[in-house]
Amino acid sequence: MTETNRQSSFRDDRSHVTGEADGRTSAEYYAERCGRVTDDIARLKRRNRWFVMGEILTFSLFILSVVAMTRWGVTLWWSACAFFWMAAYVLTRHCDARNEEAVAVFRSLKRYFERETGYLNGDLSGFDNGERYIDANHPFTFDLDIFGENSLFQRMNRTVTNGGADELARRLSSVIRSRDEIERMAEAVEELKCQREFRASFVAAGIRRPIDTKTILHRLDAVRNMPLAHRFDSPLVLLASWVAIAGLWICVLLASFSVISVRVPIGWGVVQFFVVLMMCSGELRAIGKTAGVLHREFGALMLPVRMVAANDRLSVGVNRDDRQLLTGAVDSMNRFDRLLSALDRRGNVLGLMLLDTFLLSDVFLIRRYHRWLHRHLHETTGWLDAVARLDARISAATFCDNEPRSVKATVTADKHLRYDACGLWHPFIRKNAVPNDFSLTHRHYYIVTGANMAGKSTFLRTLGINYVLAMNGLPVFAESMIVSPFRLFTGMRTSDDLAHGISYFNAELLRLQHLLRFVSDTGCGRMPAGETSAADDANAMDREMPALIILDEILKGTNSLDKLNGSRLFLRSVARTAATGVIATHDLELSKMADDPSNRYHNHCFEIELSSRITYSYRITEGVARNQNATFLLRDMIRRSGVLPSSAQ
């Protein structure tokens, strides 16, 4: 492919919606489904008006039938009419409720398709940006815009559970994985990518009823710690319960044949009801307090779990263990749902009195609850983890479906660092993206010079963020890319911290200190304990694994000569480790390190053309930048402001 043709192919601002899955582009799919769902909502709303009219009509006819009975007497005809119209009213109400439920489902689907259409048009406002995961001390996420406004997380995140968002954030924060794990992740994403309807239904269900996994886990802990009255699990209590039930029914039967006085079953029943009430009321209050919220959250969780259990086409997107776990969860959740529904029905006082008197309902309800806890409580955390993993994969698959220009990276088993990219560009730049070819050699250092705004910082982030995608089994934004696993550390956004008395220069030194520990054998690549929440991250684990460091200027907070000497000292020190480096700088003197006899330092640049205006190519080439633009831009700004007379300009 020629340079001109390749560049023009990346400049097509509609190329981001060319796609696959079912033959339609992602934009065509979203538009077509959104239109169909809108039509379905309109149809159901029209049906809703008929149901409302039917409810009014059937209830009015029921009232007329009752009035007729009061006027002309209770006859078989009018009784039948009253019963028929009441049944018709109840049936119409039921159908109306089902219709409203369908409207709610279609509205959440419409919201999903509208959000995805907005994403393709550059609108990210409908998605969580993951600001809570920002960690300025992390080896690379802060510099590469992994989290925060307009971040990779915001572009990718479609999670509907807290656990899914945490899982996605954890994966994007780590690049240390085996090739097998990366391949499994890639296969899972590819399978889910082709199941657009499943993904849409899954996310739409979460839009309608978000799943608060943190609340579920909190409630599960409360349930685990709840003191249970184990007497209800005793075989003696079970035997006594059946004896009491049988005895009361025998007394009722004998009293009906006048064998014994009717006072016996009445007295027995009253005593039995109050004994059950006193035994069970405290336990049931504790169950209701802890399990009530859990019941509501489980109701939301059941939707995606049932979708997974019903989808027999998922063989990789959900691994075998997770599928078995979630398939079993359907039956367990149904039992729990029925159990807590029975708990809610205790609000019917008359029914409660009858059921507790004749069937000891509360005793058996508590026994069923204890039995469910014993059999399934330990499984619930596994259900949540399985749903979270699927939730994160669906987000990744949707991102891939929306970005069909990306390609799968080849991950090698090289022990030395390898990074070979052809036509690489930044995933955040859709329109007029300029692709670049670049390769890294193990333990070599690449000094990138260029004018302001020429593309140096964007290029450094392009290298890093595409590597993060590759290590997560996700397609990269390039024509082709071959990489080996390595650790990653960046230093691009250093800021002072006045609250803790840390100046800008001190902050730079601290970051460089972290870097030295990261690449050193004795540090094992770990960040200093206690200084970052990511200290235990998987990125800091294998001392034998090579590392790539990406730096945007070294020692920006000091004078030019001191900066130059310090930068040279730092690079020569880091060069003794197994690290490879890409360093952007405005200091052209630093480029003279390429004259080092080791031949491990290489110069690359982003050149600009200066004439009556500045021309930016955003193309990286070998060599040292010749032109700078700061003076040119300031002179032009001063001229336009009119501060200096024409003669001085």
Question: In words, what does this structure look like?
Answer:
This protein is of the alpha/beta class. It is built from 17 helices and 10 strands. The strands form 2 sheets. A 6-stranded mixed beta sheet has the order 6-7-8-4-9-10, sandwiched between helices. α15 links the parallel β6 and β7. α5 runs parallel beside α13 and α11 crosses α13. The two termini are 46 Å apart.
Q: What's the SSE pattern? A: HHHHHHHHHHHHHEEEEHEEHEHEEEH
Largest sheet: 6 strands, mixed
Rg estimate, integer Å = 34 Å
What is the tally of helical segments? Answer: 17
Helix share, percent: 55-70%
Mean pLDDT: 82
**In terms of structural class, how would the helical and strand content be classed?**
alpha/beta
Would you summarize the structure shown here?
Helix content is 56%, strand content 9%. It is of the alpha/beta class and 649 residues long.
Write the layout of secondary structure elements.
Blueprint: H1 3-10, H2 26-72, H3 76-120, H4 152-156, H5 162-172, H6 179-193, H7 196-208, H8 213-225, H9 235-256, H10 263-310, H11 320-344, H12 349-359, H13 361-402, E1 410-411, E2 418-424, E3 436-441, E4 445-450, H14 456-471, E5 480-483, E6 487-491, H15 504-519, E7 547-552, H16 560-574, E8 579-584, E9 601-610, E10 614-622, H17 630-641
Parallel strand pairs: 1-5, 4-8, 4-9, 6-7, 7-8
Antiparallel strand pairs: 2-3, 2-5, 9-10
Helix pairs in contact: 2-3, 3-7, 5-13, 6-13, 7-10, 8-10, 8-13, 9-10, 10-11, 10-12, 10-13, 11-13
